[in-house]
Write a structure and sequence with these properties.
The chain starts with 10 loop residues before the first strand and ends in a 5-residue tail after the last helix. The chain is globular. 31% of the residues lie in helices and 25% in strands. The protein has helices at residues 33-45, 95-104, 120-125, 163-169, 201-206, 208-212, 248-272, 277-286, 297-301, 321-333, 377-388, 404-410, 414-424, 433-439; strands at residues 11-15, 22-28, 50-53, 68-71, 78-81, 86-90, 107-108, 142-148, 154-157, 178-185, 187-188, 191-200, 217-222, 228-237, 291-296, 309-317, 343-348, 363-371, 393-394. The protein has 3 domains: 6-71, Uridine Diphospho-n-acetylenolpyruvylglucosamine Reductase, domain 2 (2-Layer Sandwich); 78-188, 2-Layer Sandwich (Uridine Diphospho-n-acetylenolpyruvylglucosamine Reductase, domain 3), CATH 3.30.465.10; 191-394, FAD-linked oxidases, C-terminal domain (Vanillyl-alcohol Oxidase, Chain A, domain 3), CATH 3.40.462.10. It is of the alpha+beta class. Helix 10 (321-333) runs antiparallel to helix 11 (377-388).
């Protein structure tokens, strides 16, 4: 049984990482699939709604509880790794811990995003991805899922057992059931040779395909108010070739002082005096210095993020990326907007997950940011409109303004997912106001 049955849990204040989503909810922390089932059936019997939550790193209201919050901190196990690299991981295990455990045992995840503080269930449920033209998001590394439905059934799903549930639950939005564990396909540990340095948005647009496929994992950051980009090119190399990590002083200077402390000062100054943002952006862009090093893959994939922000990210067809970036620059230059944060551009290969932003198409991701505690205003609206012209799909964990009607036109398998949600959760136990908007209310 749970430490405190859901209908007896104490009210607790909750906020997400960025601070833009806040609620008071009854909080329960089950420690097993059986305890999750007890929570869900107990809540269903009392007509209550439950939202599962991971680390709270989403900017959207996808994890916002309007009644009961189900945490997964006690579901934090990392199992043994099979000879072929399969590992079963508890839903509440953070990517940070998982990466450390895997490399200690000689394994790695084949691709990662640039933040590792999310839980594995939360990262999967919102469609977390990294970059790499030939590599899919985190969901493509899943081989099995344990899911507890609101009826209390514990489903163990894979490509042969409940395959329709497995297919959809890899990016399930926390709408099909509560994920309690996942089995991932790891690969033998490898290193990344990282090469970083300045470039230009003009060159990136003109030679987009050549640039973004020049190494295994490419991304760049464009600094609005300038033509400058920071280009990151990572090449997969065997560990046997040796590691040459950044010297400690260089890592501290680049990643803590310049990228975080100094940038925090730029953001704070820009919030206080918006007119200074364009010259500050030019100064920030000029501060970029080329560097290269080789380290364990997860240490290169992941970046430190100490300056809090709000984010919108759209996945668009890869072929449309140059035109979308050119239009985004044109619109920004024609406005008087003040944008202190860079725009991030990444790639992912097509996959077969119904609600993955890369479902059925090779994808370019374009992300805009504003400081936490500020209103995104027309900058986010511009990205949403421009991406929408080419059928852009919003990242489920990031801010966007679309509802079920529009989303159904962006995802060919949207109706399939909603029908499965209605079957597995006919009482809407796992819903909240946000899911009611983006999926539509449960049809009973």
């Amino acid at each position: 049984m749970t430490e405190a049955p859901v209908w007896e849990a104490a009210r607790t204040r909750w906020r997400n990482w960025a601070g833009n989503q806040r609620a008071e909810a009854d909080v329960v922390q089950p420690g097993s699939a059986a305890e999750v089932a007890d929570v869900l059936t107990g809540a269903a019997a009392r007509g209550r709604r439950v939202r599962p939550i991971g680390s709270g790193h989403s900017f959207s209201a996808i994890g916002l509880p309007d009644d009961v919050q189900l945490g997964c901190a006690r579901l934090d196990t990392v199992g043994e790794i099979s000879d072929d690299g399969l590992v079963t991981v508890g839903a509440g295990t953070t990517l940070h811990r998982l990466n450390a455990e895997l490399v200690r045992r000689g394994w790695s995840l084949t691709n990662l995003g640039d933040i590792d503080r999310q839980t594995i269930a939360g990262a999967l449920s919102t469609g977390t991805h990294g970059t790499g033209a030939a590599y899919g998001g985190l969901a493509t590394q899943v081989r099995a899922i344990e899911l507890v439905t609101p009826a209390g059934e514990v489903l163990r799903c894979d490509a042969t057992r409940s395959p329709e549930v497995f297919s959809a639950a890899r990016v399930g939005l926390g709408a099909l059931g509560v994920v309690t564990s996942v089995t991932l396909q790891a690969v033998p540990a490898f290193a990344l040779r990282a090469v970083e340095g300045p470039g230009t948005l003009t060159a990136a647009i003109e030679g987009f395909e050549e640039l973004m496929t020049s190494t295994d994992h490419v991304e760049f950051y464009w600094f609005p108010h300038t033509d400058v980009t920071l280009l990151k090119c990572n090449t997969r190399v065997p560990l046997e070739e040796g590691l040459s990590p950044l010297p400690r002083w260089r890592s501290v200077w680049d990643d803590e002082i310049v990228a975080n402390a100094a940038f925090a000062g730029v953001v704070a100054t820009g919030k206080a005096i918006p007119g200074l943002i364009p010259p500050l952006a030019r100064i920030s862009a000029r501060a970029l210095a080329a560097r290269s090093w080789t380290d364990h893959s997860h240490r290169v994939f992941v970046s430190r993020r100490r300056v809090r922000f709000l984010e919108m990210e759209y996945g668009i067809p890869r072929a449309d990326a140059p035109a979308v970036l050119a239009e985004l620059r044109r619109v920004h230059e024609a406005s008087d907007w003040r944008s202190a944060f860079p725009v991030e551009v990444r790639l992912a290969a097509a996959d077969d997950v119904p609600l993955s932003t890369a479902s059925g198409r090779d994808t370019c991701y374009i992300a805009a940011h504003v400081p936490a505690g500020t209103e995104p205003g027309p900058w986010f609206a511009a990205l949403e409109a421009i991406a929408g012209e080419v059928g852009g799909r919003p990242h489920w964990g990031k801010l966007h303004g679309l509802a079920a009607g529009a989303l159904a036109t962006r995802y060919p398998r949207f109706g399939e997912f909603v029908a499965l949600r209605d079957r597995l959760d006919p009482g809407g136990v796992l819903g909240n106001a946000h899911l009611d908007r983006i999926l539509g209310p449960v049809t009973r």
